[in-house]
Amino acid sequence: MRKYLTISVFCMVFLAAGVTVAQDQTPGQSENRVEYLAVFMDGHKIGHGISTRTVEAARVTTTETMTLAITRGGTSIPIKISETSIETPDGKPLGFESTQQFSGMVMQYKGTLNSLGKLDIESTVGTMTQKQTIDWTEGALMAQGARLQLMSKNLKEGDNFTVRVFSAALMTAIETEFRIGATKNVDLLGRVVPLTEVTNIVKMPTGNVVSITYTDHEFNVQKADISIMGMNIELIACNRQFATSENDVTDFIERMCIPSPVPLENLESAESITYHLTPKGQEQLKIYTDENQTARPDGKGGLLVTVKPVQPPSGTAFPYKGKDEIALESLKPTRFLQSDDKTIIDLARRAVGNTKDAAQAAHKIELFVHDYIDEKDLSVGYASATEVAASRQGDCSEHAVLTAALCRAVGIPARVAMGDVYCSEFAGRKNIFGGHAWNQAYIGGKWIGLDATRAPNGYTPGHITEAVGNGNPEDFFALIHIIGQFNITEIKQK
């Protein structure tokens, strides 16, 4: 799932840059505009972006495409994400298209605003197509609408401008603030030009994502900078030949791994593990805590994090009929956890059988999902529970959304957790912590860890939780503020 989070952030930055393109256009006039940008990570070229804009009499079509080549263990994994917004010339949203290609898997989404003001979505994963309708955020804009608002403001240095922009990658509207800065000379791959600095602040429920863009006098973005998850990302305007030229070999997955100072053994029988997290920068670390994981400051900006899994009490009945607000929220279907879908309900009943005990049912679901997903790979970007039920394919994130949906379908509150997990070997490296997704189920007043990828041993003290949510991608942007920000310098196992 971490792969999806990182690429989604790239695309959101690119989209935020795209909506600042503000060029005058005569009504009714046709326009075809194409912009190319090279994408760099810590100085290494890893891909390119293409922004296209077509203006016709009745509609404006804006497409932002990001193509990356990441490497895992020496093997190149091609990734391509494209978002298209379709609007009227005066900025009224009509619909969108989104295509995500991860290795050999293609995921396509098409959305249309219907007469009731809702968004009809058709999703295709491989050869399987599904339909759903979700609410549209009132006042949300797409590229053309945001562009028109920006043009109307006549912005100058010191001005601020805020707009809610729909993100097809996240299937929701995201509030973005633009702060207009000074004009300065900026190096664009050897071409030095005067550009205006614009700070883009993407406001997520879990925290802000900040990027810096540099625009010309018509607000055409020429450069964007972002520091995220311990990496420095640059998008720089250039010609087509350079943008699409060969990329550098950079092992992206390896960069997301954290070395373990010592090998860990017999995790399934360990009572607890305490990790000393040391910050890489100056900011004080903050990490998720609950009954399974506690943290205390080390006095130096770091944290001592103790993971001690709680055990589920026996004899707890389900479906849940308590009053805990978070637990009740964790029973509801969501965009990615369609627990009210007939296929999901049937699978859930098949998994639990005649079991009456909630803890036994949850572990039966955990083992069922482990066996049900029979093609385990990284080719899927981030599929919903119904898509996973149909494809039976995916990695940890697909296991997690299906597990949560099945639990909710039988009345066991469940959510998706994400963080790092210990691996004795991964992608050719030994004794590391890598990005991972798993689950928590609310049983007997406690959140119990589940991990279908590792059933029957499941959740252990080898899991470090960094965020929890309802399975929707935007829930996990809290990770941006912790991923890549620390080393593990000491481990004590009991």
Name some characteristics of this structure.
C8orf32 fold, 5-stranded antiparallel sheet, 2 domains, globular, 14-stranded antiparallel sheet, alpha+beta, 494 residues
Poorly predicted tracts of residues: 18-29
Quickly count the domains. Answer: 2
Estimated radius of gyration: 23 Å
For the residues shown, what is the average pLDDT? 86
Distance between the termini: 30 Å
Estimate the global geometry from the Cα principal axes: globular
What is the spatial order of strands in the main beta sheet? 8-7-6-5-4-3-2-1-14-13-12-11-10-9
Give me the secondary-structure category: alpha+beta
- Could you give the count of β-strands? 23
Helix count equals: 9
Strand content: 35-45%
Estimated helix fraction: 10-25%
Largest sheet: 14 strands, antiparallel
Task: Give a description of the structure.
The structure is a single chain. The chain is 18% helix and 44% strand. The chain is α+β, with helices and mostly antiparallel strands. α8 crosses α9 (396-409). Mean pLDDT is 86; it is low at 18-29.
